[in-house]
């Protein structure tokens, strides 16, 4: 831990996604407050991301970015969340966040104690929690997709943000031609063996935009799309103007 950080100060982070409401912000706050009282720690700032999934890129979470900024400004020694899965439901994201916090001279802690890296068993438990959180996210995603497919088969109206490459039209999921073209570009670039960072740069150069407010592509987003698998022949070429 770097010199100058205050071990009696912490910054709190809360996250609630659209598909898992079992641990709402009130419950998360209560858990963190109890953790802080037991250790004599003062929480100097609270930050929250609403309707944000645990696999969302770190840069696409305004609440988390604000929490890291508060950590730097206050020189607090700890970024605390109620549980590990509030930080991320993706092993790589969880690791990347740990690195960012460590570069600030601070540490990550959770009210349930699963972020204790001071013992061998603690480090093992932390990584196991990250893996199971990622697995649970995948299970939730598969169940959601199955439920939506059943609704569509019955001709029922579906709601919520459609997967990239599709849009809602008259209550049904239909292909979005511009986003399908982006997926075509992605598949071809993957076949060439480019890294996700190189692919992000290539898509940007071609004028292809993500759904993020700034239109930027992040490695996590591209990895998630790549895991959906191939969807047929993908022609090369520039994307149409203002692809979103």
TrEMBL record:
GO terms for molecular function: DNA binding; DNA strand exchange activity. GO terms for biological process: DNA integration. SMART domains: Resolvase. Pfam families: Resolvase (PF00239). The active site is at 17 (o-(5'-phospho-dna)-serine intermediate). Keywords: DNA integration, DNA recombination, DNA-binding. This is Site-specific DNA recombinase. It comes from Nannocystis exedens.
